[in-house]
Fold this protein.
Amino acid sequence: MQYDIFFSISQTPVGGICPDEATMFRNFFEQVELADDLGFGVAWVAESHLSSQVQKGNARPVIPHWEGEVGLNTDILQLAARVFARTKRIEVGSAVMNILCMGGPITHAERVGTFAALHGLDPDETRRLHVGFASGRFDFMNEASGVGPRDAVERVAWRAIKGKVLEEAASIFIRLLDGQIVSSDSSAETVLTRANFRSDADWEAVQAATVERDGLDAPPESIVIAKRWIFEDVKIVPQDFRRDLVQLIIGSHDPALQDRVNTIAPVQVFNLSITSAEIIEATHARMARTYHPDGGPWKREYMPRTVFVFLNEEEGLTPEQRREAAREEATEALSAYWKALQGTIDPAKVSKAADNALVGNAQDIAAQIRERFHPDDRLMLWFDFFNHDSARVMRNMRAFMDVVRPLVEQA
């Protein structure tokens, strides 16, 4: 089993304490340096854009109850350069880079290529940048970059169209990083049909909007959506960067999209620990068939799985006291999260999230890992979830690698 670590750099009050931005970044760097010393494989860092605190004052607040900022990392490339300079072994990943906003897929492809060119100037460099990419969680970030519904039809159909926009952007992004010459003709047309919608009512609403917009006599059976990016042939520079130092991972749960991007280049897949075992295994089976041959045979480690860790191995406590303290810490953090996200504490959601997290003393967590995960899985462990006590976070990291990991390996 392989162990990665996830960092949120989320500046939100916890227990009435909200560190300033400099403290948040200092905490991150001391934690990632320890992660390097302890032997974690990849430091995955959340990405966010624009102030969520300011956005709360707009007409359509996306998380009106959230205090502070969802995340402070807006540029994984600048952050990764500093991480690589301060560490020796650990690799860096984006979880995830939004390739729709802040310039779109062409801009992001060229930035990644430039990073790889500079990072690879040392011929002995082997540490990779794992580029997790997706369409972003909150639409306001994309809309500020001009990516949103363009007319009445797209407003009604946006839930379905957003996935198609990601498909269009992903095709451009991956082909450019693959060294190809690309134009807007390289991406497929977006055509909406009933199959793209959850219900007849949703599809009929889009049909009605199209009839009104286009002056049609009858509802159409298919609707062509104009491409988002229109451009002639382009190729990014630098052209000869070290492609072996860049690994792509798509943050989409759409099986068809996961398969389509792998017709272009090897693209791995994000998945969450809360995803059902049936879907996890089905994804592995499918990717074994569809993973791009240039990436070699598919491995389970190519689908990192995010999991909360509420570990208590604090001194002066019995194993039972540690177990109970960890459960209290998990409940408190998850309750604060759901209240911030939705304005209420949903006991059912808190309980479900706790059941899917790793919670307890070292023995408990080792047993949970052995029970829930395959020996070849890659876990993306989240220690700093709603926790600004950097010293405690680092004690938990150390306890996991020094105590939990050996217990898992001994089984």
